[in-house]
C-alpha cells in the first residue's frame, strides 16, 4: 500500500526524479480516496524538493572540491601549462560541458589566441585567433564582462567573422559561456564552457566559471612573478659573480700597485716592473724605449711591426689608456708631452678593466723609473762633464786632485786616451735636440770608461784607446744616425796624463776646423791623418771653406778645369813631378808614360799657370794647393 514512507526510501537510494511518480500511480490504481491521493501528491512534492536540495548540495560539494583542487594546484605551481589544463578540465567537468577552453590576450598583436582546450576535436578551432571585439570571446576580452548564448550561430549580439564561425562550426559548438580572466581591472583572457547542443547556462554556472577564471588568472600572474623572480635571481647570481670577479680584479690590482710601489722605493728597474706585470696578469710583456730599443722582455713575444707600434702609442697617448691591436695590448710610457717608450702585453686570456689598469699603472711606474734613471745619468754626466771641462781648461790646477776625482768615476787619467771634438753641426738645434746630443755623448763615453762635456759650442769626448781616427769616425757615424743629419768629428791623441789633455783637445778642435775647411763635413778624422795641412788650416782663425776654394782657384784652378774639360792628367802629373823631387825621368816612370809626355804636360801647365810656376815660392803654393785638392777629394 502506498504511503509517504516510500518517498523517503526513494530519497535514501538517490532514485531518479521519474521514480517519484511510482507511489502515486500505484495509489490511483488501488482506488485510494482523493484525500489520500492529495496527501501522497504533497509528499511527492516535498520529496522532490528535498531531492533537488540534496542534488544542489552535492553539486556544490563537487564544485568546492574542484576549487580546492585548483587552489592546491596553485599552491604547488610548477608548470603553468599543467595548471591551466587542470583548470580547463575541471571547468568542463563541473559544468557538464562538451568543450572547455581558454584564450589569452596578445598585447603585441592586439588580439586573443587559443591557449588551452579540453574536449576539442577540431584542429582549426584549436588554432583560432580572435580580433578584439569579434565573436563572443572577443567581446568578453574587450569588455571584461561575462557573456552567454544558448545558440551562438544564430545570436546576432556578436560580431561574427568567417574564421571564427568556421572554427566554431567545425567544432560543432552551439551554446557558449565565456567569462573574463582578470588581474585587477585588466582583462588578460577568457575562460569558456561550451555545448554542442542548445543549452542555457544558470547563474550558478556562470559564478562557478568566474571562480575558476579567477584562479586561472592567479595562476598566470603567479607564473609571471615566478619567472620574474627566477630572472631576478639569475641576474643577482650573475651580478654576484661579476662582483666577485671585480673584487678579485681590484685585489689583484691593489697587490700589483703595492708591488710596483715597492719596486720604485727600493730602486728596481724596468725588468722588475715587467716581471711584476706578468706575475699578476700572466702572458708575456715587452718594454721598448722611444727609439724602439728593447728595455726588458718577460716571456715569448715577437716584436711588433714598427708602424703598428707608432700608431698604437699615438692612440694610447690620445685616449689616455691602453689600447688593443690584435692579440696585443699597448700602453704608452709618457712623461708630460714626452714619449719615453711603450709596454706591449700579450695576455693569456681576455683582460678585465682592472687588468688594463694594472698595465697602465705599470707604464706610469716605468716612466718614473726611466725619468729617475735619466736624472741619475744626467747628474753623473754633469759630474763627468765638469771633470772633463776642468781637464781641458787652462791653466790646469791640482792634477792629483783631478786624478782622484777621475778615479772615483772609474777613469784612469794616466792611461792612453784620445780626444774627440764634435762640431756645431750636431748641436745647431736648440732645446731638447741639443740636450739629446749631449746625453748621447755622455752615455757613449761613460759606457766606454771615458768622459764627455759641452764646451765652447763643441761636444768634447775623452775616450780610452789609441786610435784617434777610428774613434772620430765611429762618433761621427753613430751620432749622425741619432740626429738624422751629418755630423763632423775631429780627433787627436793618444794622450796620457792630465797635463796633456788640454793641448790634445785644442788639436782635435783644429782638426775639426780643418775638416770643415776641406769640405769634409759629416766625416771623422784625426789630426795625424790630415798632416801639416790640417795643422795649417786649423791654425787659421776662421778661414772656412770659401777661403780654401778661393786659394785653390787662384793657384791651380786652370789646371783642374783643363783636366775636367779635356779628360787629361795634368794634376796627377804635377803631383808625381813634385813627389819625386822634380825628376822628369822618375815622374815618367811613376806615371808609366814616356818622359817626353811628362815634358809636354808640364809645358801645358806652364801655359796655364804662367812660366814662373816652378819658382820656389810659387812651387810651394802649388804643392800646398795640390795637397788641399787631394784632401778635399779623398780617394
From TrEMBL:
Residues 79-230 form the GAF domain. It holds the Pfam family GGDEF_2. Belongs to the CdaR family. PANTHER family: CARBOHYDRATE DIACID REGULATOR, DNA-BINDING TRANSCRIPTIONAL ACTIVATOR ADER. This is Cyclic diguanylate phosphodiesterase. InterPro entries: CdaR-like_regulators, CdaR_GGDEF, GAF, GAF-like_dom_sf, PucR_C-HTH_dom, PucR_C-HTH_sf. It comes from Micromonospora andamanensis.
Amino acid at each position: 500500500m502506498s504511503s509517504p514512507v516510500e518517498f523517503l526510501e526513494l530519497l535514501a537510494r538517490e532514485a531518479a526524479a521519474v521514480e517519484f511518480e511510482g507511489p502515486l500511480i500505484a495509489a490511483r490504481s488501488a482506488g485510494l480516496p482523493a484525500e489520500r491521493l492529495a496527501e501522497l501528491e504533497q509528499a511527492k512534492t516535498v520529496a522532490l524538493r528535498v531531492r533537488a536540495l540534496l542534488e544542489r548540495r552535492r553539486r556544490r560539494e563537487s564544485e568546492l572540491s574542484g576549487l580546492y583542487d585548483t587552489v592546491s594546484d596553485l599552491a604547488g605551481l610548477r608548470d603553468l601549462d599543467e595548471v591551466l589544463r587542470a583548470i580547463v578540465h575541471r571547468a568542463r567537468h563541473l559544468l557538464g560541458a562538451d568543450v572547455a577552453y581558454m584564450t589569452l590576450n596578445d598585447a603585441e598583436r592586439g588580439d586573443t589566441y587559443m591557449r588551452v582546450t579540453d574536449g576539442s576535436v577540431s584542429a582549426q578551432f584549436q588554432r583560432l585567433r580572435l580580433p578584439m571585439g569579434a565573436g563572443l570571446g572577443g567581446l568578453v576580452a574587450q569588455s571584461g564582462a561575462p557573456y552567454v548564448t544558448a545558440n551562438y550561430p544564430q545570436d546576432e549580439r556578436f560580431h561574427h567573422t568567417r574564421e571564427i564561425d568556421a572554427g566554431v562550426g567545425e567544432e560543432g559548438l552551439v551554446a557558449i559561456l565565456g567569462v573574463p580572466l582578470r588581474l585587477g581591472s585588466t582583462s588578460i583572457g577568457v575562460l569558456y564552457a561550451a555545448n554542442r547542443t542548445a543549452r542555457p547556462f544558470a547563474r550558478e554556472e556562470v559564478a562557478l566559471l568566474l571562480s575558476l577564471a579567477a584562479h586561472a588568472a592567479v595562476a598566470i600572474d603567479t607564473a609571471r612573478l615566478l619567472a620574474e623572480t627566477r630572472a631576478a635571481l639569475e641576474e643577482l647570481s650573475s651580478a654576484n659573480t661579476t662582483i666577485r670577479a671585480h673584487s678579485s680584479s681590484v685585489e689583484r690590482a691593489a697587490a700589483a700597485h703595492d708591488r710596483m710601489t715597492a719596486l720604485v722605493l727600493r730602486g728596481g728597474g724596468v725588468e722588475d716592473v715587467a716581471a711584476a706585470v706578468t706575475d699578476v696578469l700572466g702572458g708575456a710583456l715587452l718594454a721598448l724605449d722611444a727609439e724602439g730599443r728593447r728595455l726588458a722582455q718577460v716571456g715569448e713575444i715577437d716584436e711588433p711591426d714598427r708602424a703598428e707600434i707608432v700608431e698604437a702609442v699615438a692612440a694610447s697617448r690620445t685616449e689616455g689608456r691602453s689600447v688593443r691591436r690584435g692579440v696585443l695590448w699597448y700602453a704608452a710610457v709618457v712623461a708630460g708631452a714626452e714619449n719615453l717608450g711603450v709596454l706591449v702585453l700579450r695576455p693569456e686570456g681576455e683582460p678585465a678593466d682592472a687588468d688594463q689598469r694594472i698595465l697602465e699603472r705599470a707604464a706610469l711606474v716605468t716612466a718614473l723609473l726611466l725619468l729617475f734613471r735619466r736624472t741619475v745619468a744626467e747628474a753623473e754626466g754633469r759630474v763627468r762633464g765638469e771633470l772633463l771641462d776642468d781637464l781641458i781648461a787652462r791653466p790646469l790646477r791640482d792634477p792629483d786632485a783631478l786624478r782622484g776625482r777621475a778615479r772615483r768615476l772609474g777613469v784612469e787619467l794616466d792611461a792612453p786616451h784620445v780626444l774627440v771634438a764634435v762640431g756645431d753641426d750636431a748641436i745647431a738645434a736648440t732645446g731638447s735636440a741639443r740636450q739629446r746630443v749631449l746625453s748621447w755623448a755622455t752615455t757613449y763615453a761613460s759606457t766606454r770608461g771615458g768622459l764627455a762635456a759641452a764646451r765652447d759650442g763643441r761636444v768634447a769626448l775623452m775616450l780610452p784607446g789609441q786610435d784617434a781616427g777610428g774613434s772620430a769616425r765611429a762618433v761621427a757615424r753613430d751620432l749622425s744616425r741619432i740626429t738624422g743629419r751629418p755630423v763632423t768629428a775631429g780627433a787627436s791623441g793618444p794622450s796620457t796624463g792630465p797635463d796633456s789633455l788640454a793641448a790634445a783637445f785644442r788639436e782635435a778642435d783644429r782638426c775639426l776646423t780643418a775638416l770643415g775647411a776641406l769640405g769634409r763635413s759629416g766625416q771623422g778624422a784625426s789630426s795625424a791623418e790630415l798632416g801639416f795641412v790640417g795643422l795649417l788650416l786649423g791654425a787659421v782663425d776662421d778661414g772656412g771653406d770659401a777661403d780654401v776654394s778661393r786659394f785653390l782657384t787662384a793657384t791651380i784652378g786652370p789646371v783642374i778645369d783643363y783636366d775636367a774639360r779635356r779628360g787629361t792628367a795634368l794634376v796627377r802629373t804635377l803631383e808625381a813631378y813634385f813627389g819625386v823631387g822634380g825628376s822628369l825621368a822618375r815622374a815618367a816612370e811613376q806615371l808609366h808614360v814616356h818622359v817626353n809626355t811628362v815634358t809636354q804636360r808640364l809645358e801645358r801647365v806652364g801655359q796655364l799657370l804662367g812660366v814662373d810656376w816652378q819658382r820656389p815660392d810659387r812651387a810651394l803654393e802649388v804643392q800646398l794647393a795640390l795637397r788641399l785638392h787631394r784632401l778635399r777629394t779623398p780617394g
